[in-house]
Amino acid sequence: MMFKLYGYQQKLIEETRKCLMNGSKSVLIVSPAGSGKSVVISEFARLTVNKGGQVLFFVHRKELIEQITNSFKKGGVDLKHCTIMTVGKVAHRLDKIPKPTLIICDESHHSLAKTYKKIYEYYSDVPRLGFTASPWRLSGKGLGDVYESMVEGPDVKWLIDNHYLAPYDYYSVKLIDDTALKRSSTGDYTNKSIDDAVGKVIYGDVIKTYKEKVNGQKAIVYAHSIEFSKKIAQEFNEAGISAEHADSKTPAKEREKIMSNFKTGKIKVLCNVDLVSEGYNVPDCSVVIMLRPTESLVLDIQQSMRCMRYKPNKKATIIDHVANYTRFGLPDTPRTWSLEGRDKKKSGGNNSIAIRTCPHCFAVISAAYSICPICGQEIGVENKELKVDKTVKVEKIGKNFHFKTDYEKVRYSQMKTEDATSFRDLQKIGKARGYKPGWSFYQAKVRGFVHQN
Question: Which residues form the Helicase ATP-binding domain (predicted)?
Answer without folding.
Answer: 18-135
